[in-house]
Amino acid sequence: MVPYIAVAAVLFSLGLFGVLTRRNIIGILMSLELMFNAVNINLVAFNKFVWPGELTGQIFSLFIIVVAAAEAVVGLAIVLLLYRNWQDISNDNINVMKW
Amino acid sequence: MDMFQIVLDELSARPVFWFLSIIMLVSGFMVVTLKNIFHSAIYLILCLFSVAGIFILLEAEFLAAAQVLIYVGAVAILMIFAIMLSTNVSGKKTMTTQNGLPVAIISAVFALGTIALVIMTKLNIVMRGSDGFISKGLWIGEKGQLPTENIMLIGKYLMTEYMLPFEVISVLLLASMIGAIALARNERS
ipTM of this model? Predict the structure, then answer.
């Protein structure tokens, strides 16, 4: 079990690194997907090794996949809208909501 | 118990897991570091595929299929569409930022260290066994079987015990679909 969690932790940290360093908004969204996947691996591994008779973790990670899909859809729609209005989707140029 | 030894034992016992993890982590690294955003989308697909393989190793067959269908088939393709519609695929605009690099490295390493600390110190946790009794034991070493009819049971759970979350998540999907259409609609036409 520990290798699964260790790998998921590394994947999560990679995603965090990507969220913080990516300039392109689509790159940030892709790094977010990495973090979601790390969480899903954790849930399924805990389900298998800590509570083997049940499927709660798998169902929960199914819900997480759906939420991630919804997030990606709305996020990419916002990206397209930004591109239509700014012709640019790097996050250091989009600061109209910065006070 | 020495955590490093545990990791080594399990790695030597599972070459498939080792193989999939290497692919997953290397492609994940490529996703966050490559300058060309289109290449990182391709590596994202590879990474998601290997996560599906890890799900199969964890006896979650339905989840692996859903992973391939939803992530690889829908989300990653959507990403590629958005990249092609919004950026010139190569060039200066696709580069990662440089000025935040040390902060990002520190944050990622700190997060990794925190998780590793939790794994190592909580290796002896109080947990509930499969028989419902609370016992003190390792995270690893708990032998047990998942239900074999994975897909059938997930369908049954979704229709009985998790009916309400299932309905709520459908409403969420509908809302996000309508929201995306409303956002991306071209109002001039």
Answer: 0.90
